[in-house]
User: Which sequence fits this backbone?
Protein backbone atom coordinates (compact mmCIF):
# COMPACT_ATOMS: atom_id res chain seq x y z
CA UNK A 1 0.00 0.00 0.00
CA UNK A 2 0.98 3.55 -0.66
CA UNK A 3 2.86 4.50 2.49
CA UNK A 4 2.24 8.14 2.08
CA UNK A 5 -1.51 7.49 1.99
CA UNK A 6 -1.35 5.52 5.22
CA UNK A 7 0.72 8.30 6.74
CA UNK A 8 -1.88 10.88 5.71
CA UNK A 9 -4.64 8.74 7.16
CA UNK A 10 -2.78 8.48 10.44
CA UNK A 11 -1.65 12.08 10.73
CA UNK A 12 -4.97 13.71 10.02
CA UNK A 13 -7.59 11.18 10.93
CA UNK A 14 -5.71 9.15 13.52
CA UNK A 15 -6.47 5.75 11.96
CA UNK A 16 -3.81 3.12 11.49
CA UNK A 17 -5.17 1.25 8.49
CA UNK A 18 -7.58 1.65 5.66
CA UNK A 19 -10.73 -0.38 5.77
CA UNK A 20 -11.52 -3.03 3.23
CA UNK A 21 -12.33 -1.31 -0.03
CA UNK A 22 -10.92 2.10 0.84
CA UNK A 23 -7.41 1.20 -0.13
CA UNK A 24 -8.04 0.25 -3.75
CA UNK A 25 -10.20 3.30 -4.28
CA UNK A 26 -7.52 5.62 -2.92
CA UNK A 27 -4.89 3.95 -5.10
CA UNK A 28 -6.98 4.27 -8.24
CA UNK A 29 -7.61 7.93 -7.66
CA UNK A 30 -3.93 8.57 -7.06
CA UNK A 31 -3.26 6.89 -10.42
CA UNK A 32 -5.80 9.27 -11.95
CA UNK A 33 -8.24 6.55 -12.78
CA UNK A 34 -11.95 7.30 -12.38
CA UNK A 35 -13.71 5.37 -9.66
CA UNK A 36 -17.23 4.15 -9.04
CA UNK A 37 -17.37 3.01 -5.45
CA UNK A 38 -20.46 1.42 -3.99
CA UNK A 39 -20.24 1.34 -0.25
CA UNK A 40 -22.99 1.42 2.33
CA UNK A 41 -23.54 4.31 4.68
CA UNK A 42 -20.93 4.29 7.39
CA UNK A 43 -18.38 2.28 5.44
CA UNK A 44 -16.12 5.30 5.18
CA UNK A 45 -16.60 6.75 1.75
CA UNK A 46 -15.36 10.21 2.63
CA UNK A 47 -11.90 8.98 3.60
CA UNK A 48 -11.65 7.55 0.06
CA UNK A 49 -11.55 11.00 -1.48
CA UNK A 50 -10.31 13.08 1.41
CA UNK A 51 -7.00 11.24 1.71
CA UNK A 52 -6.07 11.55 -1.99
CA UNK A 53 -7.34 15.13 -1.96
CA UNK A 54 -4.71 15.96 0.63
CA UNK A 55 -1.99 14.20 -1.32
CA UNK A 56 -2.66 15.60 -4.76
CA UNK A 57 -1.70 19.01 -5.94
CA UNK A 58 -4.70 21.21 -6.65
CA UNK A 59 -8.24 21.36 -5.43
CA UNK A 60 -10.78 18.62 -4.86
CA UNK A 61 -14.39 19.55 -5.43
CA UNK A 62 -16.84 17.43 -3.52
CA UNK A 63 -20.32 17.54 -4.96
CA UNK A 64 -22.91 16.79 -2.36
CA UNK A 65 -26.68 17.21 -2.42
CA UNK A 66 -27.24 18.09 1.19
CA UNK A 67 -26.42 21.26 2.98
CA UNK A 68 -26.37 19.69 6.43
CA UNK A 69 -24.04 16.97 5.23
CA UNK A 70 -21.61 19.48 3.79
CA UNK A 71 -21.60 21.50 6.94
CA UNK A 72 -20.90 18.46 9.08
CA UNK A 73 -18.12 17.25 6.81
CA UNK A 74 -16.43 20.63 6.62
CA UNK A 75 -16.65 20.98 10.36
CA UNK A 76 -15.07 17.56 10.85
CA UNK A 77 -12.28 18.41 8.40
CA UNK A 78 -11.58 21.69 10.13
CA UNK A 79 -11.44 19.79 13.39
CA UNK A 80 -8.61 17.62 12.13
CA UNK A 81 -6.73 20.61 10.80
CA UNK A 82 -7.74 20.54 7.15
CA UNK A 83 -8.84 23.77 5.65
CA UNK A 84 -12.08 23.19 3.76
CA UNK A 85 -15.14 25.19 2.83
CA UNK A 86 -18.59 24.74 1.43
CA UNK A 87 -20.46 26.70 -1.19
CA UNK A 88 -24.21 26.44 -1.07
CA UNK A 89 -27.37 28.42 -0.58
CA UNK A 90 -26.99 28.58 3.20
CA UNK A 91 -24.30 31.24 2.76
CA UNK A 92 -25.13 34.90 2.36
CA UNK A 93 -24.02 36.59 -0.83
CA UNK A 94 -21.13 38.17 1.06
CA UNK A 95 -20.00 34.91 2.66
CA UNK A 96 -20.23 33.18 -0.68
CA UNK A 97 -17.98 35.65 -2.46
CA UNK A 98 -15.52 35.69 0.39
CA UNK A 99 -15.30 31.91 0.26
CA UNK A 100 -14.78 32.03 -3.50
CA UNK A 101 -12.04 34.60 -3.08
CA UNK A 102 -10.23 32.41 -0.55
CA UNK A 103 -10.74 29.43 -2.83
CA UNK A 104 -9.11 31.34 -5.69
CA UNK A 105 -6.21 32.18 -3.44
CA UNK A 106 -5.70 28.45 -2.97
CA UNK A 107 -6.63 28.32 0.67
CA UNK A 108 -8.77 25.17 0.51
CA UNK A 109 -7.59 21.79 -0.75
CA UNK A 110 -11.17 20.55 -0.40
CA UNK A 111 -14.30 22.44 -1.35
CA UNK A 112 -17.84 21.14 -1.01
CA UNK A 113 -20.25 22.49 -3.54
CA UNK A 114 -23.94 22.02 -4.27
CA UNK A 115 -24.61 20.72 -7.80
CA UNK A 116 -26.81 23.65 -8.78
CA UNK A 117 -23.89 26.04 -8.18
CA UNK A 118 -21.56 24.39 -10.68
CA UNK A 119 -22.82 26.09 -13.80
CA UNK A 120 -23.42 29.52 -12.29
CA UNK A 121 -21.32 32.33 -13.64
CA UNK A 122 -19.49 33.14 -10.44
CA UNK A 123 -18.51 29.56 -9.81
CA UNK A 124 -17.45 28.89 -13.39
CA UNK A 125 -15.32 32.00 -13.30
CA UNK A 126 -13.47 30.50 -10.36
CA UNK A 127 -13.36 26.94 -11.68
CA UNK A 128 -11.96 27.84 -15.08
CA UNK A 129 -8.92 29.46 -13.58
CA UNK A 130 -8.41 27.06 -10.68
CA UNK A 131 -6.33 23.90 -10.61
CA UNK A 132 -8.98 21.27 -10.02
CA UNK A 133 -7.42 17.86 -9.65
CA UNK A 134 -10.38 15.76 -8.56
CA UNK A 135 -14.14 15.79 -8.50
CA UNK A 136 -15.77 13.56 -5.94
CA UNK A 137 -19.48 13.01 -6.49
CA UNK A 138 -21.10 12.01 -3.23
CA UNK A 139 -24.53 10.32 -3.26
CA UNK A 140 -23.97 9.89 -6.97
CA UNK A 141 -27.15 7.82 -7.43
CA UNK A 142 -28.95 11.17 -7.39
CA UNK A 143 -28.04 11.41 -11.07
CA UNK A 144 -30.29 8.46 -11.91
CA UNK A 145 -34.02 8.52 -12.42
CA UNK A 146 -34.10 5.01 -11.02
CA UNK A 147 -32.45 5.97 -7.79
CA UNK A 148 -34.26 6.79 -4.59
CA UNK A 149 -33.81 10.51 -4.91
CA UNK A 150 -33.24 11.77 -8.40
CA UNK A 151 -31.90 15.33 -8.58
CA UNK A 152 -31.92 16.97 -11.99
CA UNK A 153 -29.08 19.27 -10.91
CA UNK A 154 -26.78 16.23 -10.87
CA UNK A 155 -27.09 16.10 -14.63
CA UNK A 156 -25.17 19.37 -14.72
CA UNK A 157 -22.03 17.72 -13.43
CA UNK A 158 -21.00 16.29 -16.80
CA UNK A 159 -21.77 19.61 -18.45
CA UNK A 160 -19.55 21.35 -15.91
CA UNK A 161 -16.66 18.91 -16.33
CA UNK A 162 -16.79 19.35 -20.09
CA UNK A 163 -16.08 23.04 -19.70
CA UNK A 164 -12.93 22.63 -17.62
CA UNK A 165 -9.64 23.19 -19.42
CA UNK A 166 -8.14 20.02 -17.90
CA UNK A 167 -10.29 17.00 -17.05
CA UNK A 168 -9.88 16.09 -13.38
CA UNK A 169 -10.14 12.53 -12.12
CA UNK A 170 -13.71 11.72 -11.11
CA UNK A 171 -14.77 9.57 -8.22
CA UNK A 172 -18.43 8.62 -7.85
CA UNK A 173 -19.70 7.35 -4.51
CA UNK A 174 -23.01 5.83 -3.56
CA UNK A 175 -24.68 3.26 -1.35
CA UNK A 176 -27.20 2.20 -3.97
CA UNK A 177 -26.19 -0.94 -5.73
CA UNK A 178 -28.78 -1.86 -8.34
CA UNK A 179 -27.53 -2.42 -11.84
CA UNK A 180 -29.68 0.26 -13.50
CA UNK A 181 -28.41 2.91 -11.12
CA UNK A 182 -24.80 1.83 -11.48
CA UNK A 183 -24.96 2.05 -15.25
CA UNK A 184 -26.65 5.43 -15.11
CA UNK A 185 -23.95 6.83 -12.86
CA UNK A 186 -21.13 5.75 -15.15
CA UNK A 187 -22.91 7.04 -18.24
CA UNK A 188 -24.41 10.29 -16.97
CA UNK A 189 -21.29 11.41 -15.12
CA UNK A 190 -19.17 10.47 -18.10
CA UNK A 191 -16.81 8.22 -16.16
CA UNK A 192 -13.87 6.94 -18.23
CA UNK A 193 -12.99 3.28 -17.77
CA UNK A 194 -13.83 3.55 -14.08
CA UNK A 195 -12.46 1.24 -11.44
CA UNK A 196 -15.69 -0.21 -10.00
CA UNK A 197 -15.92 -1.70 -6.59
CA UNK A 198 -18.66 -2.90 -4.29
CA UNK A 199 -17.50 -3.43 -0.75
CA UNK A 200 -18.25 -3.39 2.83
CA UNK A 201 -21.97 -3.96 2.75
CA UNK A 202 -21.59 -6.19 5.73
CA UNK A 203 -21.72 -4.20 8.93
CA UNK A 204 -20.48 -6.70 11.45
CA UNK A 205 -21.41 -4.61 14.43
CA UNK A 206 -25.09 -4.46 13.47
CA UNK A 207 -27.44 -7.10 14.76
CA UNK A 208 -30.54 -7.66 12.63
CA UNK A 209 -33.84 -9.06 13.78
CA UNK A 210 -37.44 -9.15 12.63
CA UNK A 211 -40.16 -9.38 15.23
CA UNK A 212 -43.91 -9.71 14.93
CA UNK A 213 -45.11 -8.46 18.30
CA UNK A 214 -48.78 -8.25 19.18
CA UNK A 215 -48.29 -4.82 20.64
CA UNK A 216 -45.70 -2.79 18.76
CA UNK A 217 -45.93 0.18 21.06
CA UNK A 218 -45.18 -1.92 24.10
CA UNK A 219 -42.26 -3.52 22.33
CA UNK A 220 -40.73 -0.14 21.54
CA UNK A 221 -41.49 1.33 24.94
CA UNK A 222 -39.93 -1.61 26.78
CA UNK A 223 -36.90 -1.60 24.54
CA UNK A 224 -36.26 2.06 25.25
CA UNK A 225 -36.63 1.55 28.98
CA UNK A 226 -34.20 -1.33 28.90
CA UNK A 227 -31.63 0.88 27.17
CA UNK A 228 -31.95 4.15 29.04
CA UNK A 229 -28.51 5.47 28.15
CA UNK A 230 -28.66 4.77 24.46
CA UNK A 231 -29.62 6.97 21.54
CA UNK A 232 -32.03 5.38 19.11
CA UNK A 233 -34.23 6.09 16.12
CA UNK A 234 -37.76 4.76 15.64
CA UNK A 235 -38.77 4.86 11.98
CA UNK A 236 -42.46 4.95 11.13
CA UNK A 237 -44.01 4.62 7.71
CA UNK A 238 -46.33 7.62 7.91
CA UNK A 239 -46.53 10.99 9.59
CA UNK A 240 -49.54 9.85 11.48
CA UNK A 241 -47.63 6.99 13.02
CA UNK A 242 -44.96 9.41 14.23
CA UNK A 243 -47.55 10.41 16.83
CA UNK A 244 -46.20 7.46 18.76
CA UNK A 245 -43.71 10.07 19.89
CA UNK A 246 -46.32 11.91 21.92
CA UNK A 247 -47.23 8.72 23.66
CA UNK A 248 -43.63 7.98 24.54
CA UNK A 249 -43.25 11.46 25.98
CA UNK A 250 -46.38 11.02 28.07
CA UNK A 251 -44.81 7.81 29.31
CA UNK A 252 -41.81 9.77 30.51
CA UNK A 253 -39.33 9.16 27.70
CA UNK A 254 -37.26 12.03 26.28
CA UNK A 255 -38.29 11.58 22.67
CA UNK A 256 -38.57 13.98 19.78
CA UNK A 257 -39.97 13.74 16.27
CA UNK A 258 -39.26 14.53 12.65
CA UNK A 259 -41.28 14.42 9.46
CA UNK A 260 -41.85 16.51 6.36
CA UNK A 261 -45.05 18.02 7.73
CA UNK A 262 -43.33 19.98 10.49
CA UNK A 263 -42.08 23.54 10.12
CA UNK A 264 -38.43 24.00 9.15
CA UNK A 265 -37.77 25.41 12.55
CA UNK A 266 -39.26 22.55 14.49
CA UNK A 267 -37.41 20.06 12.34
CA UNK A 268 -34.14 21.83 12.91
CA UNK A 269 -34.66 22.09 16.64
CA UNK A 270 -35.75 18.50 17.05
CA UNK A 271 -32.88 17.24 15.00
CA UNK A 272 -30.44 19.22 17.13
CA UNK A 273 -32.04 17.93 20.31
CA UNK A 274 -31.26 14.46 19.11
CA UNK A 275 -27.77 15.16 17.82
CA UNK A 276 -26.72 17.03 20.94
CA UNK A 277 -28.08 14.27 23.17
CA UNK A 278 -30.83 16.37 24.70
CA UNK A 279 -33.31 13.76 23.50
CA UNK A 280 -32.39 10.11 23.42
CA UNK A 281 -35.04 8.91 21.05
CA UNK A 282 -35.99 10.21 17.61
CA UNK A 283 -39.32 9.11 16.16
CA UNK A 284 -39.41 9.90 12.47
CA UNK A 285 -40.47 9.10 8.96
CA UNK A 286 -37.84 8.35 6.34
CA UNK A 287 -37.53 12.12 5.86
CA UNK A 288 -35.11 11.99 8.77
CA UNK A 289 -31.53 10.95 8.55
CA UNK A 290 -30.01 11.99 5.24
CA UNK A 291 -26.90 13.84 6.15
CA UNK A 292 -27.12 13.06 9.84
CA UNK A 293 -23.80 11.68 10.93
CA UNK A 294 -24.53 11.01 14.59
CA UNK A 295 -22.18 8.14 15.15
CA UNK A 296 -23.43 6.75 18.45
CA UNK A 297 -26.96 5.68 17.52
CA UNK A 298 -27.24 2.37 19.35
CA UNK A 299 -30.48 1.09 17.85
CA UNK A 300 -32.80 1.68 14.93
CA UNK A 301 -36.25 0.21 15.32
CA UNK A 302 -38.60 0.13 12.36
CA UNK A 303 -42.14 0.45 13.56
CA UNK A 304 -43.25 -0.74 10.12
CA UNK A 305 -41.80 -2.61 7.22
CA UNK A 306 -40.20 -0.03 4.91
CA UNK A 307 -40.76 0.14 1.15
CA UNK A 308 -37.52 -1.34 -0.05
CA UNK A 309 -34.33 -2.97 1.07
CA UNK A 310 -32.46 0.12 -0.10
CA UNK A 311 -34.50 2.20 2.29
CA UNK A 312 -34.23 -0.32 5.06
CA UNK A 313 -30.50 -0.78 4.89
CA UNK A 314 -29.86 2.91 4.66
CA UNK A 315 -32.07 3.70 7.64
CA UNK A 316 -30.95 0.75 9.74
CA UNK A 317 -27.37 1.61 8.77
CA UNK A 318 -27.59 4.83 10.77
CA UNK A 319 -27.07 2.65 13.82
CA UNK A 320 -23.55 1.98 15.01
CA UNK A 321 -21.61 4.19 12.67
CA UNK A 322 -18.88 4.30 15.29
CA UNK A 323 -18.33 0.58 14.78
CA UNK A 324 -19.64 -0.42 18.20
CA UNK A 325 -22.43 -2.95 18.59
CA UNK A 326 -25.87 -1.71 17.65
CA UNK A 327 -29.25 -3.27 16.97
CA UNK A 328 -31.58 -3.01 13.96
CA UNK A 329 -34.99 -4.38 14.71
CA UNK A 330 -37.88 -4.47 12.30
CA UNK A 331 -41.33 -4.77 13.85
CA UNK A 332 -43.50 -6.39 11.27
CA UNK A 333 -47.22 -6.90 10.98
CA UNK A 334 -49.17 -7.97 7.87
CA UNK A 335 -50.93 -4.60 8.08
CA UNK A 336 -47.64 -3.01 6.98
CA UNK A 337 -48.03 -4.57 3.57
CA UNK A 338 -51.44 -2.98 3.23
CA UNK A 339 -50.10 0.46 4.17
CA UNK A 340 -47.22 0.14 1.74
CA UNK A 341 -49.49 -0.87 -1.14
CA UNK A 342 -51.64 2.13 -0.39
CA UNK A 343 -48.62 4.43 -0.42
CA UNK A 344 -47.47 3.03 -3.75
CA UNK A 345 -50.91 3.50 -5.26
CA UNK A 346 -50.84 7.15 -4.25
CA UNK A 347 -47.25 7.90 -5.12
CA UNK A 348 -46.68 11.17 -6.99
CA UNK A 349 -45.46 10.45 -10.48
CA UNK A 350 -46.71 13.49 -12.40
CA UNK A 351 -43.33 14.42 -13.74
CA UNK A 352 -42.79 11.00 -15.33
CA UNK A 353 -44.15 10.07 -18.73
CA UNK A 354 -46.64 7.17 -18.78
CA UNK A 355 -44.15 4.55 -19.98
CA UNK A 356 -41.70 5.44 -17.22
CA UNK A 357 -44.51 5.43 -14.72
CA UNK A 358 -45.20 1.81 -15.48
CA UNK A 359 -41.52 0.86 -15.13
CA UNK A 360 -41.19 2.68 -11.86
CA UNK A 361 -44.31 1.04 -10.55
CA UNK A 362 -43.12 -2.42 -11.45
CA UNK A 363 -39.81 -1.73 -9.80
CA UNK A 364 -41.54 -0.52 -6.63
CA UNK A 365 -43.71 -3.61 -6.41
CA UNK A 366 -40.66 -5.81 -6.87
CA UNK A 367 -38.85 -3.96 -4.11
CA UNK A 368 -41.77 -4.35 -1.78
CA UNK A 369 -41.77 -8.09 -2.37
CA UNK A 370 -38.10 -8.28 -1.48
CA UNK A 371 -38.93 -6.59 1.81
CA UNK A 372 -41.88 -8.86 2.46
CA UNK A 373 -39.72 -11.91 2.00
CA UNK A 374 -37.20 -10.43 4.42
CA UNK A 375 -39.90 -10.30 7.07
CA UNK A 376 -40.91 -13.91 6.55
CA UNK A 377 -37.63 -15.61 5.77
CA UNK A 378 -36.07 -18.09 8.17
CA UNK A 379 -32.66 -17.82 6.52
CA UNK A 380 -29.87 -15.69 7.95
CA UNK A 381 -31.08 -12.08 7.79
CA UNK A 382 -27.67 -10.62 7.24
CA UNK A 383 -27.04 -12.93 4.31
CA UNK A 384 -30.42 -12.11 2.85
CA UNK A 385 -29.43 -8.44 2.82
CA UNK A 386 -25.91 -9.02 1.52
CA UNK A 387 -27.14 -11.20 -1.31
CA UNK A 388 -29.59 -8.55 -2.31
CA UNK A 389 -26.77 -6.04 -2.57
CA UNK A 390 -24.71 -8.37 -4.72
CA UNK A 391 -22.34 -9.97 -2.24
CA UNK A 392 -21.83 -13.71 -1.77
CA UNK A 393 -21.71 -14.57 1.90
CA UNK A 394 -20.41 -18.05 2.59
CA UNK A 395 -22.25 -19.12 5.69
CA UNK A 396 -24.93 -17.93 8.12
CA UNK A 397 -23.71 -15.14 10.37
CA UNK A 398 -24.75 -16.77 13.66
CA UNK A 399 -25.46 -13.33 14.98
CA UNK A 400 -28.89 -12.24 13.75
CA UNK A 401 -32.45 -12.84 14.91
CA UNK A 402 -32.87 -15.82 12.62
CA UNK A 403 -29.53 -17.47 13.20
CA UNK A 404 -30.13 -17.31 16.93
CA UNK A 405 -33.70 -18.40 16.74
CA UNK A 406 -33.61 -22.10 17.42
CA UNK A 407 -33.28 -22.34 21.09
CA UNK A 408 -32.72 -25.15 23.49
CA UNK A 409 -33.45 -24.74 27.19
CA UNK A 410 -30.67 -25.44 29.62
CA UNK A 411 -31.16 -25.70 33.38
CA UNK A 412 -28.50 -23.69 35.17
CA UNK A 413 -29.91 -23.46 38.67
CA UNK A 414 -26.77 -24.73 40.36
CA UNK A 415 -24.49 -22.47 38.40
CA UNK A 416 -26.84 -19.55 39.13
CA UNK A 417 -26.39 -20.01 42.87
CA UNK A 418 -22.63 -20.03 42.49
CA UNK A 419 -22.63 -16.86 40.45
CA UNK A 420 -24.85 -15.18 43.02
CA UNK A 421 -22.47 -16.21 45.79
CA UNK A 422 -19.64 -14.67 43.85
CA UNK A 423 -21.50 -11.39 43.43
CA UNK A 424 -22.13 -11.49 47.17
CA UNK A 425 -18.45 -11.99 47.91
CA UNK A 426 -17.53 -9.22 45.48
CA UNK A 427 -19.78 -6.89 47.52
CA UNK A 428 -21.28 -5.41 44.38
CA UNK A 429 -18.09 -3.74 43.30
CA UNK A 430 -17.32 -5.43 39.98
CA UNK A 431 -18.80 -5.92 36.55
CA UNK A 432 -19.65 -9.02 34.54
CA UNK A 433 -16.17 -9.76 33.34
CA UNK A 434 -14.63 -9.97 36.79
CA UNK A 435 -17.46 -12.14 38.09
CA UNK A 436 -17.17 -14.50 35.14
CA UNK A 437 -13.39 -14.68 35.41
CA UNK A 438 -13.64 -15.34 39.13
CA UNK A 439 -16.07 -18.25 39.02
CA UNK A 440 -14.17 -19.61 36.03
CA UNK A 441 -10.96 -19.42 38.05
CA UNK A 442 -9.07 -17.30 35.52
CA UNK A 443 -5.46 -16.58 36.32
CA UNK A 444 -5.23 -12.85 35.76
CA UNK A 445 -3.31 -10.13 37.48
CA UNK A 446 -6.52 -8.21 37.93
CA UNK A 447 -8.09 -10.98 40.02
CA UNK A 448 -4.91 -11.18 42.12
CA UNK A 449 -4.95 -7.47 42.62
CA UNK A 450 -8.51 -7.29 43.90
CA UNK A 451 -8.14 -10.45 45.92
CA UNK A 452 -10.81 -12.39 44.05
CA UNK A 453 -8.52 -15.41 43.89
CA UNK A 454 -9.22 -15.90 47.59
CA UNK A 455 -12.99 -15.92 47.26
CA UNK A 456 -14.77 -19.16 48.10
CA UNK A 457 -16.40 -18.96 44.70
CA UNK A 458 -13.10 -18.64 42.87
CA UNK A 459 -12.96 -21.38 40.25
CA UNK A 460 -16.22 -23.11 41.31
CA UNK A 461 -17.42 -23.07 37.71
CA UNK A 462 -14.08 -23.76 36.10
CA UNK A 463 -14.55 -25.37 32.72
CA UNK A 464 -18.01 -23.92 32.11
CA UNK A 465 -18.34 -22.18 28.78
CA UNK A 466 -18.05 -18.44 29.27
CA UNK A 467 -20.71 -17.71 26.68
CA UNK A 468 -23.12 -19.64 28.85
CA UNK A 469 -22.01 -17.77 31.95
CA UNK A 470 -22.60 -14.50 30.18
CA UNK A 471 -26.08 -15.61 29.16
CA UNK A 472 -26.74 -16.82 32.65
CA UNK A 473 -25.87 -13.42 34.13
CA UNK A 474 -28.18 -11.74 31.63
CA UNK A 475 -30.91 -14.11 32.71
CA UNK A 476 -30.28 -13.44 36.41
CA UNK A 477 -30.54 -9.73 35.76
CA UNK A 478 -33.75 -10.24 33.80
CA UNK A 479 -35.26 -12.26 36.62
CA UNK A 480 -34.23 -9.69 39.19
CA UNK A 481 -31.82 -11.89 41.14
CA UNK A 482 -29.04 -9.54 40.14
CA UNK A 483 -29.08 -5.83 39.41
CA UNK A 484 -26.78 -3.67 37.34
CA UNK A 485 -25.58 -0.63 39.26
CA UNK A 486 -23.61 2.46 38.25
CA UNK A 487 -20.59 1.73 36.08
CA UNK A 488 -22.17 -1.57 35.11
CA UNK A 489 -21.27 -3.29 38.38
CA UNK A 490 -23.32 -6.30 39.41
CA UNK A 491 -25.23 -6.17 42.67
CA UNK A 492 -27.49 -8.61 44.44
CA UNK A 493 -31.15 -8.24 43.67
CA UNK A 494 -34.00 -9.98 45.43
CA UNK A 495 -32.79 -13.54 45.82
CA UNK A 496 -35.42 -14.75 48.28
CA UNK A 497 -37.21 -16.61 45.47
CA UNK A 498 -34.20 -18.81 44.90
CA UNK A 499 -34.43 -20.23 48.42
CA UNK A 500 -37.54 -22.10 47.36
CA UNK A 501 -36.41 -25.66 46.57
CA UNK A 502 -38.69 -25.64 43.51
CA UNK A 503 -36.99 -22.58 42.05
CA UNK A 504 -34.96 -22.99 38.91
CA UNK A 505 -33.05 -20.81 36.51
CA UNK A 506 -32.72 -21.79 32.90
CA UNK A 507 -31.36 -20.10 29.82
CA UNK A 508 -32.20 -20.41 26.18
CA UNK A 509 -29.26 -21.27 24.04
CA UNK A 510 -28.35 -22.03 20.48
CA UNK A 511 -25.79 -24.45 19.16
CA UNK A 512 -23.47 -21.52 18.77
CA UNK A 513 -23.41 -20.91 22.52
CA UNK A 514 -22.05 -24.37 23.11
CA UNK A 515 -19.05 -23.80 20.91
CA UNK A 516 -15.80 -23.06 22.68
CA UNK A 517 -15.53 -19.28 23.16
CA UNK A 518 -12.84 -18.74 20.57
CA UNK A 519 -14.70 -20.51 17.81
CA UNK A 520 -17.89 -18.69 18.61
CA UNK A 521 -16.25 -15.29 18.39
CA UNK A 522 -14.37 -15.53 15.16
CA UNK A 523 -15.47 -12.08 14.15
CA UNK A 524 -13.32 -9.17 14.89
CA UNK A 525 -15.43 -7.06 17.16
CA UNK A 526 -14.75 -3.49 17.83
CA UNK A 527 -13.88 -2.56 21.35
CA UNK A 528 -16.96 -1.84 23.35
CA UNK A 529 -17.58 -0.53 26.83
CA UNK A 530 -17.96 -4.10 28.03
CA UNK A 531 -14.29 -4.69 27.38
CA UNK A 532 -13.40 -2.04 29.94
CA UNK A 533 -12.68 -2.94 33.54
CA UNK A 534 -14.88 -1.17 36.04
CA UNK A 535 -12.04 1.24 36.65
CA UNK A 536 -11.67 1.78 32.92
CA UNK A 537 -15.36 2.46 32.75
CA UNK A 538 -15.08 5.14 35.40
CA UNK A 539 -12.35 6.80 33.43
CA UNK A 540 -14.45 6.51 30.26
CA UNK A 541 -17.25 8.37 32.05
CA UNK A 542 -14.87 11.15 32.99
CA UNK A 543 -13.52 11.40 29.48
CA UNK A 544 -17.10 11.66 28.26
CA UNK A 545 -17.71 14.44 30.71
CA UNK A 546 -14.72 16.36 29.45
CA UNK A 547 -15.88 15.78 25.88
CA UNK A 548 -19.30 17.20 26.70
CA UNK A 549 -17.65 20.20 28.36
CA UNK A 550 -15.59 20.89 25.25
CA UNK A 551 -18.58 20.28 23.00
CA UNK A 552 -20.54 22.92 24.91
CA UNK A 553 -17.63 25.38 24.77
CA UNK A 554 -17.30 24.97 21.04
CA UNK A 555 -20.99 24.44 20.25
CA UNK A 556 -20.20 21.19 18.51
CA UNK A 557 -21.92 17.84 18.81
CA UNK A 558 -19.83 15.67 21.17
CA UNK A 559 -19.07 13.02 18.54
CA UNK A 560 -17.29 15.59 16.38
CA UNK A 561 -14.75 16.12 19.18
CA UNK A 562 -14.05 12.39 19.67
CA UNK A 563 -16.16 9.31 18.99
CA UNK A 564 -17.16 6.90 21.78
CA UNK A 565 -14.83 4.39 20.23
CA UNK A 566 -11.91 6.77 20.60
CA UNK A 567 -12.76 7.45 24.25
CA UNK A 568 -13.06 3.73 24.98
CA UNK A 569 -9.70 3.11 23.42
CA UNK A 570 -8.32 6.01 25.44
CA UNK A 571 -9.76 4.65 28.68
CA UNK A 572 -8.27 1.24 27.95
CA UNK A 573 -4.83 2.49 26.95
CA UNK A 574 -4.59 5.31 29.49
CA UNK A 575 -1.96 7.21 27.54
CA UNK A 576 0.49 9.26 29.60
CA UNK A 577 2.31 11.11 26.83
CA UNK A 578 1.80 12.55 23.38
CA UNK A 579 3.11 9.52 21.46
CA UNK A 580 0.91 7.24 23.55
CA UNK A 581 -2.05 9.48 22.94
CA UNK A 582 -1.44 9.44 19.19
CA UNK A 583 -1.60 5.67 19.40
CA UNK A 584 -5.28 5.91 20.37
CA UNK A 585 -7.55 5.19 17.40
CA UNK A 586 -9.09 8.43 16.14
CA UNK A 587 -6.50 10.81 17.62
CA UNK A 588 -4.53 12.59 14.90
CA UNK A 589 -2.00 15.40 15.18
CA UNK A 590 -4.51 18.20 15.02
CA UNK A 591 -6.97 16.82 17.51
CA UNK A 592 -4.05 16.17 19.78
CA UNK A 593 -2.98 19.79 19.49
CA UNK A 594 -6.49 20.93 20.31
CA UNK A 595 -7.58 18.58 23.04
CA UNK A 596 -4.69 16.23 23.81
CA UNK A 597 -3.44 18.00 26.89
CA UNK A 598 -6.85 18.30 28.51
CA UNK A 599 -7.54 14.63 28.06
CA UNK A 600 -4.07 13.68 29.27
CA UNK A 601 -4.71 15.76 32.38
CA UNK A 602 -7.92 13.96 33.21
CA UNK A 603 -6.21 10.62 32.72
CA UNK A 604 -3.27 11.69 34.87
CA UNK A 605 -5.59 12.88 37.60
CA UNK A 606 -7.44 9.60 37.47
CA UNK A 607 -4.22 7.62 37.62
CA UNK A 608 -3.18 9.48 40.76
CA UNK A 609 -6.53 8.86 42.42
CA UNK A 610 -6.61 5.13 41.86
CA UNK A 611 -2.93 4.95 42.74
P1 LIG B 1 -19.90 7.17 4.80
O1 LIG B 1 -19.61 8.51 4.18
O2 LIG B 1 -19.50 6.02 3.93
O3 LIG B 1 -21.29 7.04 5.32
P2 LIG B 1 -18.03 8.05 6.75
O4 LIG B 1 -17.00 8.50 5.77
O5 LIG B 1 -18.84 9.08 7.43
O6 LIG B 1 -18.99 7.00 6.06
O7 LIG B 1 -17.30 7.14 7.81
C1 LIG B 1 -17.99 6.49 8.86
C2 LIG B 1 -17.14 6.43 10.11
O8 LIG B 1 -16.05 5.54 9.95
C3 LIG B 1 -16.56 7.77 10.47
O9 LIG B 1 -16.66 7.93 11.88
C4 LIG B 1 -15.10 7.64 10.04
O10 LIG B 1 -14.26 8.50 10.76
C5 LIG B 1 -14.83 6.17 10.31
N1 LIG B 1 -13.74 5.64 9.46
C6 LIG B 1 -13.62 5.79 8.13
N2 LIG B 1 -12.50 5.18 7.68
C7 LIG B 1 -11.90 4.61 8.75
C8 LIG B 1 -10.70 3.82 8.94
N3 LIG B 1 -9.90 3.50 7.93
N4 LIG B 1 -10.43 3.41 10.20
C9 LIG B 1 -11.22 3.72 11.23
N5 LIG B 1 -12.36 4.46 11.12
C10 LIG B 1 -12.70 4.91 9.90
ZN1 LIG C 1 -27.60 -14.56 10.54
Assistant:
Amino acid sequence: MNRQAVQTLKTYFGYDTFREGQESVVESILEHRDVLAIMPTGAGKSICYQVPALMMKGITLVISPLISLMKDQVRSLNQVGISAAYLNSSLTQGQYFTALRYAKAGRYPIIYVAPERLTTEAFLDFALSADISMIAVDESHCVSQWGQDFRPSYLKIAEFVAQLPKRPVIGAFTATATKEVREDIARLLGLQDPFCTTTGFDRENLYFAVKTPKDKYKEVHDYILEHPDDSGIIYCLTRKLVEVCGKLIRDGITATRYHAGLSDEERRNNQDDFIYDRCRVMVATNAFGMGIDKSDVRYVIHYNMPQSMENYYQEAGRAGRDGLDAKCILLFSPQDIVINRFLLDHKEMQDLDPADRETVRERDVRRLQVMERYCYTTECLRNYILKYFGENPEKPCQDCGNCLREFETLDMTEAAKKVINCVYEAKGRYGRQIIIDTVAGAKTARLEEIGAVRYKSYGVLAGTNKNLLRRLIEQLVLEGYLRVGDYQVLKLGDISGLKNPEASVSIKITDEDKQPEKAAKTKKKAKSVETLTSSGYKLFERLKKLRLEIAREESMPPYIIFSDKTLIDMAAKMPASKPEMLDVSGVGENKFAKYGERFLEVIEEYRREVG
In short: Confidence is low (pLDDT under 50) at residues 518-525. Residues 380-382, 396-397, 399-400, 402-403 surround zinc ion (ligand 2) (CB under 6 Å). The two ends are 43 Å apart (CA to CA). The longest strand covers residues 132-137.
